[in-house]
Design a protein that fits this description.
This protein is mainly beta. The protein contains one helix and twelve strands.
């Protein structure tokens, strides 16, 4: 069974009118502004700050079906949203420098390993330096 990540969503006016308190880590999306807030379990909606993603100069593109391209990173750029809650990401997805990986069904996991940026060559393997950095290398030895 595939896992599903769903974010609470409504218009800015409805969020303001209801003024709910989101649980700690719960996300709320304003569907008309594309702005996102993260709950702390005690602060009402209107007192929460908007959550921002991206880096200075980072580009993110979204088409009408919410297919995103570009690098998604924490810091300074709002992510646009659409009523279609299906999101497809390409590029690097990170939270505080830790890569977030997912398969085609968005079954995701966090990893503390530094994954290589480029693909390896045919028949290469991933090797570690013992400090969490992976690189591609030719298989060796054995018999």
């Amino acid at each position: 069974m595939a896992d599903r990540i769903q974010i609470r969503r409504d218009t800015a006016a409805n969020w303001t009118s209801a003024n709910p308190t989101l649980t700690q880590g719960e996300l709320g999306l304003e569907t008309d502004t594309g702005k996102l807030k993260a709950g702390d379990g005690s602060t009402a909606w209107t007192s929460l700050s908007y959550y921002t993603l991206g880096t200075t100069g980072a580009a993110m593109y979204s088409d009408a079906t919410a297919n995103f391209t570009g690098d998604l990173q924490k810091s300074g750029v709002s992510v646009p949203a659409y009523s279609d809650t299906t999101a497809n990401f390409t590029g690097d997805l990170q939270k505080s420098g830790v890569p977030v990986a997912a398969d085609a069904n968005l079954n995701s996991f966090l990893t503390a390993l530094d994954l290589p940026v480029a693909d390896g060559s045919a028949d290469q393997i991933l090797k570690t330096d013992g400090s969490g950095t992976l690189s591609f290398a030719d298989a060796s030895g054995g018999g």
